[in-house]
Each structure stands twice: as structure tokens, then as C-alpha cells.
Amino acid sequence: MHELSIAQSIVDTVLAVAAERPGSSVATIHLKIGALSDIARDALEFGFEAITRGTELEETLLEIEIVPIIACCERCHTEFEIHEYSFQCPDCGSRDVAMTQGAELDIDSITLTDPGPTPICNRESTHTHD
Ligand SMILES: [Zn+2]
């Protein structure tokens, strides 16, 4: 179950970011996981919960967005979404396609809450991608 070590590295990264803003707490972690990344979402959520229990990240919301698999045809350069692992160009039928998206595991954004107003910096805004 490698999701546990992935969850641990996410926690490490987030704590490092939060450490740069003393007094703030992490409200939301927004993750992007490629559909081909071989990560079980449930296991990742479970691992995150297990690791953060009793820590400052216990109340942190883990939002996971599954990113579709996108490939580009090497022959006609059509970009298309892969369904059911069918790596074939819908335009010219070529199987010479390169995956451009779908295997990633990115921390897309981290939302911090500040206990009080910050005098110098702008407050972190919440990014939504709808
Ligand atoms: Zn093509």
C-alpha cells in the first residue's frame, strides 16, 4: 500500500508550507491525481486520515480531483481523452500516441486560515477551478 507513503509526503509538504506562516492552520489541501497514476483514492484518504489523526492537520479537508488521461497523437497531433485505456487516436486511428496528462500527483493548492489579519501580505485566497 504505497498510498500511505504518498500521504506521508503530502503531509510533509503541507507542514513545510504551513511552517512558513506561523499561526496559520491548513484548512484544505487540494490534490490532483491522474486517472492513470495507480493511486487508490480511498486508500489515500484513509492513509491521510490515519497519519493526521491527533495532529494539527486532523481537521484539514483533503479534496481530491481526478484528472482525466489526455494523450496526443504523434502522427496528426490531435489531443484527446483516453477512455478505458484505449490508446488509439480517434482521428487517424494511429496507436502512436503520447500521454500528456493523467499520471500526475500534484498538490494543486493549499488553503490556509489565519487566526488574525496579516499586516504585510495579502491573505491567501481560495482558488476554485470549476
Ligand atoms: Zn492521429
Question: What do these coordinates show?
Answer:
This protein is elongated. Helix 1 (3-19) packs across helix 2 (41-52). The chain contains 2 helices and 6 strands. A 3-stranded mixed sheet has the order 2-1-6, with helices on one face. It has a single domain, classed as 2-Layer Sandwich (hypothetical protein PF0899 fold), CATH 3.30.2320.80. Helix content is 22%, strand content 29%. The longest helix is centred in the first third of the chain and has 17 residues, at 3-19. It starts with a helix and ends in a 17-residue tail after the last strand. It is α+β, with helices and mostly antiparallel strands and 130 residues long. Strand 3 (70-73) and strand 4 form a beta hairpin. The chain binds zinc ion (ZN). Zinc ion binds next to loops. Residues 73, 75-76, 78, 89, 91-92, 94 line the site of zinc ion.
The total count of strands amounts to 6
Named CATH architecture: 2-Layer Sandwich
Give helix and strand order, one letter per element, not per position.
Answer: HEHEEEEE
Bound molecules: zinc ion
Low-pLDDT runs: none
What portion of residues belong to β-strands? Answer: 25-35%
Number of helical stretches of at least 4 residues: 2
* Biggest pleated-sheet summary: 3 strands, mixed
